[in-house]
From TrEMBL:
Domain of life the protein comes from: Eukaryota
Assigned protein family: Belongs to the AB hydrolase superfamily. Lipase family.
Compartment(s): Secreted
Name assigned to this protein: Triacylglycerol lipase
Keyword Ribonucleoprotein: no
Keywords assigned by UniProt, alphabetized: Calcium, Disulfide bond, Lipid degradation, Lipid metabolism, Metal-binding, Secreted, Signal
Signal peptide region: 1-33
Species lineage: Eukaryota, Metazoa, Chordata, Craniata, Vertebrata
Length: 478
């Protein structure tokens, strides 16, 4: 059903997952601190705040570098389809590779049960390389990323992954004069916190993007445990799975900019989380669908920059009601690859909302306000539809619900369209009654205005007369 699966995640670990969700509530104790040190990576402790708290009751150290076997898969425009492995412990090999010291670098860190080849990581690298000439490096820690049964260990292993990234950046800076200001680290789930650890250990990283950072063992922890704004010059976060109690993404904002597409839960196209209880394989796909949307949205944003415009709002409810529509000047920004701090940002941290499409082939969406001036034989209470172009050359009808409206009255609603509307000479609309049209009423649109959320521009269309229910009425540009 979905293009990316968890690999070693299977139906069997579902019970341990439920137990894991209850651990912070049932257990809170003290542990005897231990420490592990490695010459090139530094030291790791299992003392507070890494354990002994309500959020992190268990004391575990990361696995050793040898067990983790973290590898760096380099893709460039010279080798977009076949990666090269580079290592901080092989400086000569870096120099002989396709790594370009005059270009920026993007590191992509996967989460639990994934790898950095032949999946979404390599797909994202290919999309980035189509748009930019950069070094794209997949960080592969499949040996330590584990599965649900070893989630607590995997969460601690992410610290060592971050240290390995920091060590490679240190070597690049020392041996090649390559600054951290050229580096962007993208991390999904546990990989987002690994990216944060890299930023803590190697100062000056330009940007870190957290793709639905993992919640369990990280929500409400001190900043040194999780991704936070101090880890890079710019930290942006996409939240797609914050529903209670089965959401696995962190709920609270933890970046400079935090995006909550579709309110951060119930992504369009994803089935309800417990809709496949009779099929355990399908259940795994269902449980991870929202969580995986984060990296799918990011990948599509590379190709469709303007299809992921975020609106600054206090809540998803206020966004749906039209707050910050159209975009306040200088305060909106794009979610995903082209995200940047808005010039008129009013706070050091800002929350943004947007809606997305639900098709696996197209998640981008453009928001519009449709205002209708009604004409008819009596008060109208029903559903009004406007028909607008869609990708592929067809049309799609969008419902604008009206409260009881007298002839000559106005009503409006917001719609999310899968493409940016270009100039139109005309448009169609129709209406339908709530119940039977026993009085044979006729209604029509005297005027329809379509306002773009991106820039506030309005296109107005004028109509004459009325039509019966479910009959198309054509309006022309006023």
């Amino acid at each position: 059903m979905f293009p990316y699966r968890m690999g070693r995640l299977s139906a069997a670990p579902m019970l341990p997952l439920c137990r894991l969700l209850l651990i912070p509530i049932l257990f809170h104790g003290t542990v005897k601190a231990k420490e592990a040190c490695y010459e090139h990576l530094g030291c790791f402790s299992d003392s507070w705040p890494w354990s002994g708290t309500l959020q992190r009751p268990f004391a575990l150290l990361p696995w050793t570098p040898e067990l983790m076997n973290t590898r760096f898969f380099l893709y460039t425009r010279r080798n977009p389809d076949q990666h090269q492995i580079i290592s901080a412990q092989n400086v000569t090999g870096i120099g002989a590779s396709a790594f370009q010291t005059n270009q920026n670098s993007t590191f992509i860190v996967h989460g639990m049960g994934h790898k950095a080849e032949n999946n979404w990581v390599s797909d994202m690298c290919k999309a980035i390389l189509e748009a930019e000439d950069v070094n794209c490096i997949g960080v592969d820690w499949r040996e330590g990323s584990g599965n649900i049964k070893m989630y607590v260990q995997a969460a601690n292993n992410a610290r060592l992954v971050g240290a390995e990234i920091a060590y490679l950046l240190q070597v690049l800076q020392t041996e090649y004069g390559y600054p951290a200001s050229k580096v962007h680290v993208i991390g999904h789930s546990l990989g987002a916190h690994a990216a944060g650890e890299a930023g803590k250990r190697h100062q000056g990283i330009r940007r870190i993007t957290g793709l639905d950072p993992a919640k369990q063992l990280f929500e409400d922890t001190p900043e040194e445990v999780r991704l936070d704004p101090s880890d890079a010059g710019f930290v942006d976060v996409i939240h797609t799975d914050i529903s209670f109690p089965l959401g696995v993404g962190i709920v609270k904002p933890i970046g400079h900019l935090d995006f909550y597409p579709n309110g951060g839960k119930n992504m369009p196209g994803c089935p309800p989380k417990l809709s496949d209880l009779g099929n355990m394989d399908a259940l795994v796909d269902t449980l991870t669908c929202n969580h995986f949307r984060a990296f799918l949205y990011y990948t599509e944003s590379i190709r469709r920059r303007e299809g992921f415009l975020g609106y600054p709002c206090d809540s998803y409810k206020s966004f749906l009601s039209g707050a910050s529509f159209p975009c306040p000047e200088g305060r909106c920004t794009f979610m995903g690859h082209y995200s940047q701090l808005p010039p008129a940002l009013k706070a050091p941290q800002q929350i943004f909302y947007l809606n997305t499409g639900g098709s696996i082939s197209s998640f981008s969406s453009w928001r519009y306000k449709v205002s209708i001036t009604l004409q008819g034989t009596r008060a109208f209470m029903g559903k009004f539809y406007v028909l607008l172009p869609t990708t592929g050359g067809g049309t799609q009808q969008f419902e604008i619900v009206s409260k009881k409206t007298a002839p000559g009255g106005n009503f409006s609603g917001f719609i999310d369209v899968g493409l940016e509307l270009g100039p139109m000479d005309n448009m169609d609309c129709k209406w339908a009654p709530v119940f039977l049209n026993i009085f044979r009423c006729q209604f029509g649109a005297q005027r329809i205005e379509i306002q773009s959320g991106k820039d506030g521009k309005v296109s107005a269309f004028c109509g004459n007369g009325t039509v019966q229910e479910n009959v198309l009425q054509k309006l022309i540009l006023c």
